[in-house]
Specification:
By secondary structure, the protein is of the alpha/beta class. It has helices at about 5-35, 50-65, 80-90, 170-185, 220-230, and strands at about 40-45, 65-70, 70-75, 95-105, 105-115, 120-125, 125-135, 140-145, 155, 190-195, 200-205, 210-215, 245, 255-259. The protein is built from 5 helices and 14 strands. The protein has a 9-stranded mixed sheet with strand order 8-7-6-9-10-11-12-13-14, covered by helices on one side. Strands 1-5-4 form a 3-stranded mixed sheet, covered by helices on one side. The chain has a two-stranded antiparallel ribbon with strand order 2-3. The N and C termini lie far apart (about 115 Å).
């Protein structure tokens, strides 16, 4: 049974009014996200050089210029895409840590801490291919091929890429770092370079005085330093300047050779 014409018109009109009301309400909701005072218009970055700050700000602004579903602005204070910015920051090996804060109503603050250089790592067969390393053995950025002994160098025979990761296990790197730091006190010697052999588990620590120490992944640092100190203060004492190398890979013996 058909409804009277007048009744149908009333229902149609009511539907139109409801639809218009929904559209208007939706428009008001969308408009609320575009209120200028609630959009992230100030990005404060601390911890980088001016040039690096400018580059990072532009990258973040590029993310914030986008929209959710082609409608909702990502630079809105409430809709800030935190995970997207975190992905951007985590993709930068040079950054050790970061903290983001939003300050109502329109400020984004980012506090950054960069990795500090502990050594420069280079591939032996491509010495121009060098990376900065931090104190944990993490390779975080391209480095020039340094000469001289002002910066500790790590020369690697392995043909591998390490940017954005550790050049060896943390435990092994800490053993090498301990040798570097303790040799001046225990043996009055300073390390100028570390050579990683092709196997990845044998190492040569080249000293500024001209000879080198051989160790491996099984070397006990405390025992090795004790054995070295005993040898340098006894059988090698008078001929130290003639040394070519000392091998500390054996827990109860010290092997050495003169030039």
């Amino acid at each position: 049974m058909l409804l009277p014409r007048r009744k149908r018109q009333q229902i149609f009109l009511k539907g139109i009014l409801i639809l218009l009301g929904l559209v208007a309400a939706g428009g008001l909701v969308i408009a609320a996200f575009y209120i200028p005072s609630l959009r992230l218009s100030s990005i404060v970055i601390e911890g980088l050089s001016p040039a690096e700050t400018k580059i990072l700000r532009e990258e973040i602004e590029q993310i914030l210029s986008q929209k959710y579903f082609y409608v909702f602005p990502k630079d809105n204070f409430i809709l800030f895409p935190k995970e997207k910015v975190e992905i951007l920051l985590k993709a930068k090996p040079r950054l050790r840590e970061f903290l983001m804060e939003r300050e109502f109503p329109s400020t984004l603050k980012i506090f950054l801490k960069e990795r500090e250089t502990w050594a420069v790592w280079c591939q032996k067969d491509a010495k121009k291919s060098c990376l900065f390393l931090d104190a944990e053995g993490f390779a975080f950025g391209a480095a020039p091929a340094f000469s001289g002994t002002a910066v500790l160098k790590i020369i690697d025979e392995r043909n591998e890429e390490f940017i954005g990761k550790n050049i060896m296990s943390s435990a092994q790197f800490q053993k090498l770092a301990a040798l570097v730091e303790r040799l001046p006190r225990r043996a009055k010697e300073e390390v100028s370079a570390i050579e990683i052999k092709i196997s990845g588990n044998t190492f040569r620590l080249h000293l500024k005085s001209g000879w080198y120490i051989t160790t491996d992944e099984e070397t006990d640092v405390d025992r090795a330093l004790e054995n070295l100190a005993l040898a340098l203060n006894s059988e090698i004492k008078e001929s130290r300047a003639k040394l070519e190398y000392v091998d500390l890979r054996f827990p109860d013996k010290v092997f050495y050779r003169y030039k």
